[in-house]
Amino acid sequence: MIRVLIADDQGMVRTGFTTFLGTQPDIEVVAEAVNGQEAVTRAAELAPDVVLMDVRMPVMDGLEATRRILAGTATKVLILTTFDLDDYVYEALRTGASGFLLKDASAQQLVEAVRVVAAGEALLAPSVTRRLIAEFARLGGPRAPTVKRLAELTGRETEVLALMAQGLSNGEIAGRLVVSEQTVKTHVGRVLAKLGLRDRAQAIVFAYETGLVRPGD
Predict the structure, then answer these.
(1) What is the distance between the alpha carbons of residues 80 and 55, in angstroms, rounded to a whole number?
(2) pTM
């Protein structure tokens, strides 16, 4: 059972999300929060698998709440917003959010997003990925302190990381490298463990920040 906390300052939005998710046999909404501070408190109390986090909320915004929640738990955060803005996309992913979904997504897309994030995968819509890449292009060269960490990876693990950063799924990477999907999953797990990353979303950020992959590759 995937345990979900919904954090949004709009009651109708919380009710809608709870209704959508409550119809699923593998998902349980364990609590709601009306602002970022309450989200942090409830996440600490309940340790949900996934937090659906609005960006703009009173008391504490969703980005700060995400930062605090991820500092002490294994909970995954899926950012939900009506604002498709570059700053939110980049900062949310750097903070450690596992995905970014606009509120106009369908009920089925929301349900699938929760499952994807709970499974440890990244959820990056094509429009979000384009903005993320554009932001890295704007920021310029790689960040030196993190470049050294690439040396911890084997050649094949580095190759897998580069393909992940280009948005390929495990199945697509397996086809590209002519190996089994299980082998790719093993490589992905090792990449995340060696680099101390939570999931694929952070791996994509890392790959661009180190210059392993560059916009346009």
Answers:
(1) 7
(2) 0.70
What lies within 8 Å, CB to CB, of 119 at 6+ separation is: none
pLDDT per position as a tens digit, 38-75: 999 999 999 999 999 988 888 898 889 998 998 877 89
Burial pattern 56-95, b for ≥16 Cβ within 10 A else e, equals ebeebbbbbbbbbbbeeeebbbbbbbeeeeeebbbbbbbb
In this structure, are residues 51 and 39 in contact, taking their beta carbons and an 8 Å threshold? yes
Residues in a beta bridge with 100: 79, 124
Alpha helices in the chain (DSSP H): 11-22, 36-46, 62-72, 86-95, 107-118, 126-139, 144-147, 155-165, 170-177, 181-195, 200-209
CA-closest candidate to residue 166, choices 116, 203, 115, 117: 203
Query: Which amino acid, 125?
Result: A
